[in-house]
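Thread: sanity check for a docking pose with adenosine-5'-triphosphate

Original post by kr_44:
Hi all, I'm comparing my docking run against an independent structure prediction. Below are the sequence and the ligand SMILES. Could someone generate the full complex and paste the structure tokens? I mainly care about where the ligand ends up relative to the chain.
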Amino acid sequence: MIEFRNVSKVYNNGTEALHNINLKVEKGEFVFIVGSSGAGKSTFLKLITCEERPNEGQVLIDGQDISHIRKGKIPYVRRKMGLVFQDFRLIDHMTVYDNVAFAMRVVGASPKAIKKRVPYILGLVGLQHKAKHYPTEMSGGERQRVGLARALVNNPSMIIADEPTGNIDPALSYEIVDLLSAINERGTTVLMVTHEHSLVKHFHKRIIQIHSGEIVADTAAISKEQQAAAQAVATQETVAVDREAIRRAKEARAKADADAQPYATKEFTAPQNNDQANG
Ligand SMILES: Nc1ncnc2c1ncn2[C@@H]1O[C@H](COP(=O)(O)OP(=O)(O)OP(=O)(O)O)[C@@H](O)[C@H]1O
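Reply from moderator J.T.:
Ran it for you. Here is the predicted complex with adenosine-5'-triphosphate included:
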């Protein structure tokens, strides 16, 4: 579980990137983080990965306050996380297999464990047949699947992805988010920053919108009871759910959809067309 308590981040040059952020992401959630360029999205992720520290407040991972954690302890926190980057960050002179195996070697996995695990993970992302290829011989979508395999190989409890589809063909972006969804369904928490409103519209996930360092929308702002009832409605498991709860759930779902709607329309703008969209 990830929790932000009154978190603010000011960079050394005086830029306040985040202001008084409060939120919880429960284990197993899938969250899109959206917002215009400079809103504070990457800073938000960097506070989770301990790349940056907050000036105020606390960031908790599974109940552990990591805001002032000692440098030597950071690798232990990061082992809970699989990181996926916009620019893939693969090692070009290593094969796909070795790129993924390398992530296991650095945490001290045995050769036997590596030999067993890497082919399994490559199978999971549909790349077992490309194990001997080099990243430079692959498409952007395939490279990002290698990036996902590397992020997953040490069995993290969460995937932190900063614009993972930013450098790939829009059609292939869906494949990547499909894969992230499948991974999420197996219990891994997913946090994904994106500028692609079509993805956010297509995949019905929790959406957190950051604007000028503050959370201005969060579609999870419905009660647990309403979420459970909404789920029951969606799966027709209505036996134990009373009619009033169902009605409230439907209302909550409609409100959540309405809240999510701006992301599918002109109000949610990618940074490259900000001027156009705002003008
Ligand atoms: N290392 C840094 N030093 C100083 N200011 C920074 C630093 N990193 C980010 N900022 C500033 O903090 C604010 C938030 O930046 P951040 O990178 O978190 O935004 P973002 O929403 O991820 O933007 P983008 O979508 O363009 O990646 C911006 O004003 C940015 O210029």
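The longest helix spans residues 243-264. Hope that helps with the comparison, let us know if your pose agrees.
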